[in-house]
Specification:
The chain is α/β, with parallel strands linked by helices. It is 36% helix and 24% strand. It is an enzyme of class 6 (ligase).
Length: 242
């Protein structure tokens, strides 16, 4: 379903956040431009029953530094996966970023496991399906995106691969027109990058990555990528009918 105008009437996007400094960014901007109210939930703190019992037009599941498979250490992950699984079965629109994409994969029955760490700005390689999809907007940024992950996942059954990197073959996938799952972070606004550098300082140190490198590259291309990302999410929402 597609339209050329923002939908009329009240719409809502629910956002599940895992760490306070990883925001919905340009996803929220695109949703608000289409008339959506944003309702925020903090994973592990807020009861996600309302997400399930009063489903929004769109659910956005954001990133975080924990693993999908760490359910013994973070038992609330099982409830979050159950919420996502119910939404998958109902074919309600959903976007996942990084951990969010991994949680959607797990809810769809795919394996999530440690992969190759990728942190910083680098390009993705779209598949032919990706070039035809809303991801095509990222071509305006030479397919550059912000990577910040250490885990990966198998492609869920019935999903269509949209993009890869050499280190991480499954960088983006779609399930029908109702799920967009991205291992990378096109949602990030350049003005927010300093909170990422502070929040992930231990990880950056362990990986031997100088935060000045990411800060400098963000200044060069961050705004271009964010603008392309907003156009990508807007087109996806139009095609998903939300």
């Amino acid at each position: 379903m597609s339209d050329t105008h923002a939908p009329r009437g009240p719409r809502r996007t629910d956002v599940i956040q895992h760490v306070g400094f990883e925001h919905a960014g340009v996803i929220a901007d695109a949703a608000r431009a289409r008339g959506h109210e944003i309702r925020m939930y903090q994973a592990g703190v807020d009861d996600l029953a309302l997400v399930q019992d009063d489903p929004a037009d769109l659910l956005v599941v954001l990133g975080g530094p924990i693993g999908v498979y760490e359910t013994e250490a973070y038992p609330w992950l099982e409830a979050e996966i159950a919420v996502i699984r119910d939404r998958l079965h109902a074919q309600r629109p959903m976007i996942g970023a990084c951990l969010g994409a991994q949680l959607i994969a797990a809810a769809a029955g795919a394996r999530v496991y440690p992969g190759t760490r990728e942190i910083g700005w680098a390009p993705i390689t779209p598949t032919e399906a990706g070039r035809r999809s809303p991801l095509a907007a990222l071509a305006e940024a030479d397919w550059q995106v912000l990577h910040w992950h250490g885990d990966t996942f198998d492609l869920p059954a019935g999903a269509e691969l949209l993009a890869s990197t050499a280190a991480t073959p499954h960088q983006a996938y779609a399930i029908g027109s109702h799920v967009l799952a991205l291992q990378f972070h096109p949602e990030v606004k350049p003005g927010d990058i300093e909170t990422w550098l502070i929040g992930h300082t231990v990880e950056l140190g362990r990986a031997g990555i100088d935060p000045r490198t990411i800060r400098r590259r963000t200044g060069e291309i961050g705004a271009v990528v964010a603008n392309a990302g907003e156009r990508m999410f807007t087109r996806w929402m139009e095609e998903a009918g939300v």
